[in-house]
């Protein structure tokens, strides 16, 4: 965006790890806090869509390593994301933020199906739209879905909120105290150095369509609002 102007429409990717606070299940205090921050930015006039992960319940790759058929495991992973969507919706409504959940696997009692034009309409009416069940397809990740949804519903940026890391580093900052954070990166470098941001499918989709990605720390209070306002926090990945 132009200096200080802020984005008009953003896609925020929240990992399942964030929802669980590092444990299995949903940490209501954390989700409540995220809901409060989201209400603030949506009521401030920014259109926000969210893709939630499900790693706090199941990760397909882990279950399949433990002996489960990969496709079953991936569907379990997708269903886990829907539980996070419902938790986020519940807490958003408690703070007066209207929301709609749309899922890539149909489950009419629980959520609307994914209908991109309807999602845009909700955003225009000031509703938070939460996308669940990933792409509805095994072998994909919620990061890739976040990139795809950002493109399809016309978001200006993909905001990737990380659980306790400030941005993209050249090494794991939790194990290497000399690790350096990048402020700017291009997509090709992320892919070539296999930097831990998102999977390669998600990065290459953004690269092919020039979708900028901002990677920032969710646990720093006020960071969602800063990222939405276009402040230079974390790491910016672009052309
Ligand atoms: N998943 C999938 N297809 C999708 C999105 C997700 O099969 O389009 C499954 C996959 O098994 C993944 C799990 O859902 O491990 C949870 O999503 P993810 O790991 O992306 O969540 P996060 O790491 O963000 O918590």
TrEMBL record:
Gene3D superfamilies: Acetylglutamate kinase-like
Enzyme Commission identifier(s): 2.7.4.22
Enzyme superclass (EC): transferase
Gene Ontology MF terms: ATP binding; UMP kinase activity
Activity regulation comment: Inhibited by UTP.
Gene Ontology terms: cellular component: cytoplasm
Pathway: Pyrimidine metabolism; CTP biosynthesis via de novo pathway; UDP from UMP (UMPK route): step 1/1
Start and end residues of each Aspartate/glutamate/uridylate kinase domain: 8-217
Subcellular location per the Swiss-Prot or TrEMBL entry: Cytoplasm
Main location: cytoplasm
Keyword Lipid metabolism set for record: no
InterPro entries per the UniProt record, alphabetical: AceGlu_kinase-like_sf, Asp/Glu/Uridylate_kinase, Uridylate_kinase, Uridylate_kinase_bac
Amino acids binding ATP: 13-16, 55, 59, 163, 169, 172
Alphabetical GO biological process terms: 'de novo' CTP biosynthetic process; UDP biosynthetic process
Keywords assigned: ATP-binding, Cytoplasm, Kinase, Nucleotide-binding, Pyrimidine biosynthesis, Transferase
Subunit field text: Homohexamer.
Protein family according to the UniProt entry: Belongs to the UMP kinase family.
Entry function: Catalyzes the reversible phosphorylation of UMP to UDP.
Protein name per its UniProtKB record: Uridylate kinase
